[in-house]
Amino acid sequence: xxxxxxxxxxxxxxxxxxxxxxxxxxxxxxxxxxxxxxxxxxxxxxxxxxxxxxxxxxxxxxxxxxxxxxxxxxxxxxxxxxxxxxxxxxxxxxxxxxxxxxxxxxxxxxxxxxxxxxxxxxxxxxxxxxxxxxxxxxxxxxxxxxx
Length: 147
Known about the structure:
Layout: H1 2-17, H2 22-35, H3 38-46, H4 57-67, H5 71-74, E1 77-89, E2 92-101, E3 105-113, E4 120-127, H6 130-137
Antiparallel strand pairs: 1-2, 2-3, 3-4
Helix pairs in contact: 2-3, 3-4
C-alpha cells in the first residue's frame, strides 16, 4: 500500500515538473514535422490546448496548406532558425522561425499563452512574406540619415 502511494506521489510530482516550455514544444513540433509530417506535428502542437478541436475546419485547412510545402513545391527541407522572440508578458510569448527550403524561406510563427501553470499554443501560422518585409525595412524612410 505504501509503495503504491509513494509511486502515485512521485508520478504526480514528476508530472507537475514536466510542464513543457514553449521552446520544447517548438522543438517537438519541428522534429515531428520532419519525421512524421505536417499533420502529426499540427495535431500534437494543438493537443496542448483543450479549447481547440483537432477536427475543426481551420485546423484541417492549416494542415492541408502546411502539407502543401512538400518537395515538389518548395524543395528539400533543411531545418529552421530562430528569427525573433517577443515576450508580451510572463504569460504570452511569440516565437518566429525561418524554415529553410531549397526554393525559398518560410516563416513559422508560434504564439503561446500560459493561463495558469502550463503553456498552451494560442496561435500558429506560416507565411512567405519575409522578403517583402525585409525590402520594406530597407527603405530610406526607415533609415536614420545624417543631417
